[in-house]
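Researcher: Here's a chain I'd like modeled. Treat it as a single chain, no partners, no ligands.
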Amino acid sequence: MTSKDSIYANKQPIEDFSFDARVVEVFPDMIQRSVPGYTTIVSTMGKLAGQYAQNNSNIYDLGCSLGAVTLTMRRNINKENCQIIALDNSEPMIERCKLHLEGFRSDIPVDVRLGDITQCKIENASVVVLNFTLQFIPKEKRQALLEQIFQGLKPGGILLLSEKFRGENEQANELLIDLHHDFKRANGYSELEISQKRTAIENVMQPETLSSHLTRMQNIGFSQTQVWYQCFNFCSLIAIK
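Model: Modeled as a single isolated chain. Structure tokens:
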């Protein structure tokens, strides 16, 4: 049974958010109640991976957390000689991810690794996933990471990128934030929880505008980039090499 996220329910000194053991315990509840459409995003990523995976290739889940995307990709991919490489820099996440994966049988091997995704060598890849991961990478390292992914993708390979993004101007951004906070209230978060979580995460997660993501993909060399899901200030896109 999933534990309920009550990390910020009581007034407390606020430290920068991290994916520590406390968060791991409540992560499924936290993500469902905080990210609109998360279930749809994860299941569709599995279907897209099944569609674009190539024989004899690597599939990367960068920032795999508890392995939700890895599991759905493994269920949907039916190509020969594929392996999934799941990477995260949170040791508690990786340990729990291994337990989750052991609960399901599959012919597709998964290599679960603890490490820094900016240092991960991407090679012979047909699918690479960054599911709400890039936003936690320092801004100055994002271009190099995406270029590295592009170089490591086979022709016809895809990058699946989900992000929380900023509105194109201050008024649009405040509108999106208000809509998201209403979503969290509707899912049972209090004003204190919303406020304290926002404070904890603002130094750790630095969202960019959607247009900046699209422009960067084009400049890196992806032949096409398409937003396939958006709700408030959350989106998911596919970039094809």
